[in-house]
Specification:
Layout (H helix, E strand, L loop, with lengths): L26 H15 L9 H29 L4 E5 L3 E2 L4 H7 L3 H10 L4 H5 L6 E2 L3 H15 L4 E6 L7 E5 L2 E5 L11 E3 L5 E5 L2 E6 L5 E6 L2 E13 L6 E11 L3 H6 L4 H12 L16 H22 L9 H4 E6 L6 H12 L4 H11 E4 L10 E3 H7 L1 H21 L5 H6 L6 E3 H8 L3 E3 L2 H11 L1 H6 L4 E3 L6 H7 L2 H11 L20 H26 L8 E6 L8 H17 L10 E6 L7 H19 L7 E4 L6 H10 L2 E4 L11 H7 L3 E4 L5 H8 L5 E2 L4 H10 L3 H7 L1 H11 L12 H9 L5 H19 L2 H14 L5 H13 L9
Parallel strand pairs: 1-4, 1-13, 4-12, 13-14, 14-17, 17-18, 19-20, 19-22, 20-21, 22-23, 23-24
Antiparallel strand pairs: 2-3, 5-6, 7-11, 8-11, 9-10, 11-12, 15-16
Helix pairs in contact: 1-2, 1-4, 2-3, 6-33, 9-11, 11-12, 11-14, 13-14, 21-24, 21-32, 22-23, 22-29, 22-31, 28-29, 28-31
Bound molecules: ligand NBY.
GO molecular function, one term: glycogen phosphorylase activity
Family: Belongs to the glycogen phosphorylase family.
EC number: 2.4.1.1
């Protein structure tokens, strides 16, 4: 039964038998509870309270409504036999919590009115929340969307990850160059977490292993570690949308153990002992800011093992009943591996079953294989994680032994399946000459391996893991990514949400396929006018946000053309810059009449990995071009570049609803899926994009006539690279490209200093790994089609409405349904309260 009471309904009676009292769901109850939190939680009166006091009091008041359901869900979890999805992810990029909590508990009106009675404004208080930036980009945000959907679908799930003390760095620009600062997101207090130090888990590292005989005379192994740390769980509530379900996200924080100081450091004095503590606690100190190229750093392997060991232990020894028969483990859990970062969980579960629970090897391996599934998020070879054998042996000697045995048995299996092919077992090995290949381990151990869009899954089978897909074709599958409609439509775009709900009712929020019912409205001129009004309002809101956040001036007329994603060469922000430079050069040189230039605002959002020099150059270039273009009177204000620093979930929620055009211009075959592409289309932006990742599926659904396709197809990319790619010849063949590159190289954007971007231009002319120059002419031609389409507002709006109507497929609810059916075989549970 559903427990979310519609707003305005009488307060629910206190529920009996659950050991808790439900909060009142009305304005009077809210005001009383808010004041109690302010007075006795924060210890201040309303008049003397700071903005932060008020925000914390509000957050705690709202959270009562979720806690009540959470306790019920936890009580029930212990009773029922449902299979639980344990989503193991080194990153959860949650975004702000307050609005989502208000939405989930259906408190919008109550909060608005209650705060109003106290003379407070919700929008001021919500701005006080610092978002938990515990992820880099798409992979971490996907995890956050997935746990939202599972809660909304009442599927038992625990998200397991790391409570980084410092999340993704804060980006600012100094003279246009990226500067990184730390993200002390916990500094003002975090009302959304519940620490449970009493449930801390000990995690071991280092040392050696030894063999011994057990009582039955069998040879067994034990690990003699030489240091350990404690993992303290911090629980977060993951509320379903008004369905009474609240799941748990459990993030681990490292603390020094008591014995730690004396044993391993032999610290004779107090100061040394404290120093030893920081050694332990640095494990969960900071999120690694690389979003593609793993660094192979020891601390990172420590992080991975740390959170995975805590999580496996927590589920087996603390979540499952103490008398649970572990032979039945696959009936009760699936550990989903979000990329290779948590793969060390595989040998960890083997170690627990064999060394701690006394299982024999084969039995344990059968169970383990059924308990894991692996999602791959990349196609870049440099992104496939490998750990040096030396490091693995030093940090996790028992796990290395286990991995070696899995590898030996696997290679024997391959040799038997492909007799005579000696190269095959070597190519497929988990343990290579110097490294352990985590993607191979995940593929061997996982019951399923999935890619994140159709093309990606196909390339994963054919190009990345072809030997494995030959051996186990049925192991490979696709689940195209999705995004949560709660955060990215209902909350981020309230104007469009209201318009949609007015047209087709509110059911779309949990059944996004129903957006189809909007299709007829695409032909209704009055609806289209209201749709345009929504965009105008969203652009005005964005302009105000950028003004107050960064003092950025953003015009609200013309095409709002948005490219938001991590900065990476394969995503080709440079191609976007070349388009802007070419338009600018056209006007300045007289090739283009300024009246013929369609007004556009180019909005960028992108962080570069701090060690990725070329990405940082590209950020410098975008800012330099922007400064020049924005200031040049010859353009008559028609082209504006805005690049607000520190793109994060909070800013995404402002940018995406304002977009007319979505830039998805990666080199075909490189973007695994993309999820920003889905969010933008769902908010009524038209896509200009390559035949890559989920763009392909977006285009198929919205229709060719509502999508601007350009560029080489993946097989053409392969072909061109095979025959030898010469970027300079493409530059020479298109005078617009020659001029644009020349202009950058001349120092026109750097006060005459030609040296600043010479490396970048040289790289494009002589290497251009991601074929930006090869796709330039096609991109320019597609942008001309964009301008022509935009000149017809009715036609454009029609396409935009159809984009919204036809993108229901990209709900993460649908993605979760597919994981459930194809991979997990889990069931929703009925929340009975
Ligand atoms: O995962 C992204 C893909 O690029 C994107 O196409 C896809 O839509 C999304 C969700 O499936 N991958 C991604 O975001 N990767 C990372 O953030 C990441 C982070 C750390 C590391 C590697 C990748 N690392 O090795 O440290």
């Amino acid at each position: 039964t559903q427990v979310g009471s519609p707003s305005g309904a009488p307060a629910e009676p206190p529920r009996r038998g659950l050991g808790h009292v439900a909060p009142r769901h009305d304005v009077e109850g809210f005001v009383g509870s808010f004041m109690r939190e302010l007075n006795y939680g924060q210890g201040v009166s309303l008049t003397r309270s700071s903005l932060n006091d008020r925000y914390l009091a509000l957050a705690r008041t709202v959270r009562h409504h979720l806690q009540s359901r959470w306790m019920a869900a936890l009580a029930q979890q212990a009773d029922d036999q449902a299979k639980t999805v344990c989503y193991l992810s080194a990153e959860f990029l949650l975004g702000r919590q307050l609005d989502n909590a208000i939405l989930a508990s259906d408190l919008d009106d109550v909060v608005e009115e209650g705060l109003g009675q106290l003379g407070l404004s919700l929008s001021t208080l919500r701005a006080q929340e610092i978002e938990p930036g515990l992820g880099n980009g798409g992979l971490g945000r996907l995890a956050a969307c997935f746990i939202d959907s599972l809660a909304t679908m009442s599927v038992p799930c625990v998200g397991y990850g790391i409570r980084y003390e410092y999340g993704i760095f804060r980006q600012s620009f100094e003279d246009g160059w990226q500067r990184e600062d730390t993200d002390p997101w916990l500094a003002l207090g975090n009302p959304w977490e519940f620490p449970h130090p009493e449930h801390a888990v000990t995690v071991n590292f280092g040392g050696t292993t030894e063999h011994y005989e057990d009582e039955d005379g069998a040879t067994r192994t034990r690990w003699l570690p030489d240091w350990d740390v404690q993992g303290v769980p911090y629980n977060y509530m993951v509320p379903g949308f008004r369905n009474g379900r609240v799941n748990t996200l459990r993030l681990w924080s490292a603390k020094a153990t008591r014995g730690f100081n004396l044993n391993s450091f032999n610290a004779g004095d107090y100061v040394d002992a404290v120093r030893a503590e920081t050694f332990a606690e640095k494990i969960s100190m900071v999120l690694y800011p690389e979003d593609s190229t793993p660094q192979g750093k020891e601390l990172r392997l420590q992080q991975q093992y740390f959170f995975v060991a805590c999580s496996v232990h927590n589920f087996i020894n603390q979540v499952l009943p103490s008398d649970f028969d572990l032979h039945k483990l696959p009936d009760r859990v699936i550990f989903q591996l979000n990329d290779t970062h948590p793969v060390i969980a595989v040998p960890e579960l083997m170690r627990v079953l064999v060394d701690e629970k006394g299982f024999d090897w084969d039995e344990a391996w059968t169970i383990t294989q059924q308990c894991f599934a692996y999602t791959c998020h990349t196609l870049l070879p440099e992104a496939l994680e490998e750990w040096s054998i030396e490091l693995m042996g030093r940090l996790l000697p028992r796990h290395l032994e286990i991995i070696r045995r899995i590898d030996e048995e696997f290679r024997a299996e391959v040799a038997a399946a492909f007799p005579g092919d000696e190269a095959m077992p070597r190519r497929m090995a988990i343990v290579g000459d110097h490294t352990v290949r985590m993607a191979h381990l995940a593929t061997v151990a996982g019951s399923k391996v999935n890619g994140v869009a159709e093309l990606h899954s196909q390339l994963l089978r054919d190009k990345v893991l072809p030997d494995f897909s030959a051996l186990w074709p049925e192991k490979f599958t696709n689940v195209t990514n999705g995004v949560t409609p709660r955060r990215f439509l209902r909350l981020a775009n309230r104007n469009l949400s209201s318009l949609i709900t007015e047209a087709i009712g509110p059911g779309w929020v949990t059944d996004l396929d129903r957006l189809r019912e909007l299709e007829p409205f695409a032909d209704d001129p009055a609806f289209r006018e209201r749709f345009r009004e929504v965009k105008r309002l969203n652009k005005a809101t964005l302009a105000r946000t950028l003004q107050s956040r960064n003092g950025i001036e953003m015009p609200t007329t013309g095409i709002v053309d948005i490219m938001v994603k991590r900065l990476h060469e394969y995503k080709r922000q440079t191609l976007k810059v070349l388009h802007i430079v070419s338009l600018y050069e056209g006007v300045v040189s007289g090739r283009l009449a300024v009246e013929d230039v369609t007004p556009r605002v180019f909005a960028f959002g992108a962080k570069a990995a701090p060690g990725y020099a070329m990405a940082k150059q590209i950020i410098g270039l975008i800012n330099a071009v922007g400064a020049t273009v924005n200031a040049d009177p010859r353009l008559d204000g028609r082209l504006t570049v805005v690049f607000p620093p520190n793109y994060d979930v909070t800013l995404a929620e402002k940018l995406i609803p304002a977009a007319d055009l979505s830039e998805q211009i990666s080199l075909a075959g490189k973007e695994a899926s993309g999820t920003g592409n889905m969010k933008l289309a769902l908010n009524g932006a038209l896509t200009i994009g390559t035949d890559d990742g989920a763009n392909i599926e977006i285009r198929r659904l919205v229709g060719d006539e509502n999508f601007f396709l350009f560029g080489l197809l993946e097989p053409q990319v392969e072909e061109l690279l095979a025959k030898g790619y010469d970027p300079a010849s493409y530059a020479a063949a298109d005078p617009r490209l020659t001029s644009a590159l020349d202009l950058i190289a001349s120092g026109a954007f750097t006060g005459g200093d030609a040296s600043v971007f010479s490396g970048l231009v040289d790289n494009l002319l002589h290497h251009d790994r991601f074929l930006a120059l090869a796709d330039f002419s096609a991109y320019m031609e597609a942008q001309d089609r964009v301008d022509a389409a935009y000149a017809d507002p009715e036609g454009w709006t029609r396409s935009a409405v159809l984009n919204v109507a036809r993108c229901g497929f990209f709900s993460s609810d649908r993605a979760m349904r597919e994981y459930i059916d194809k991979i997990w075989h889990a069931q929703p549970v009925v929340t009975s309260l």
